[in-house]
Amino acid sequence: MNFFKFELVYQIILIVVLSQDQVVLQSSLIGAMSELGPFRINSDGKTLFMNDYAWSNVANMLFLESPAGLGFSYSNTTSDYDKSGDKNTADDAYIFLVNWLERFPQYKTRDFYITGESYAGLMCHSLHTPSF
């Protein structure tokens, strides 16, 4: 999970970006570091520069790696890797978001948007309607 905080309180919108592409196992950090996050990677591959067009200029952004094992995500429970499929992924993401909002209650009253690119876009619908 990566969270980029926007400082102007009156414009804060919490945006959750799910994994970029579950089919080819791309990390959501690809989008964070090359498209819409606050930083871009310089051509030397070692340093960063500010992204003037970052979504984080107008919103708080939470990048969620899902399911466990995708991108930089992991689990301390080996059996979690055996639980695959859209239903389990959406249920896990829902549980994570509920717990995240409990830990950071100042975001509970903010507008909340969920988005995803490629296959992750399909997962957004499942996250809106958890199965439990």
Automatic annotation (TrEMBL):
Q: What is its EC number?
A: 3.4.16.-
Class of enzymatic activity (EC top level): hydrolase
Signal sequence segment:
1-19
Pfam families membership:
Peptidase_S10 (PF00450)
Q: Single GO molecular-function term?
A: serine-type carboxypeptidase activity
Q: Name one GO biological process term.
A: proteolysis
* Keyword Protease included in the entry's annotation: yes
Question: Where does it mainly reside?
Answer: secreted
Keywords assigned: Carboxypeptidase, Hydrolase, Protease, Secreted, Signal
For this protein, the record's InterPro entries field holds: AB_hydrolase_fold, Peptidase_S10, Ser_caboxypep_ser_AS
The family annotation for this protein states:
Belongs to the peptidase S10 family.
Q: What is this protein identified as?
A: Carboxypeptidase
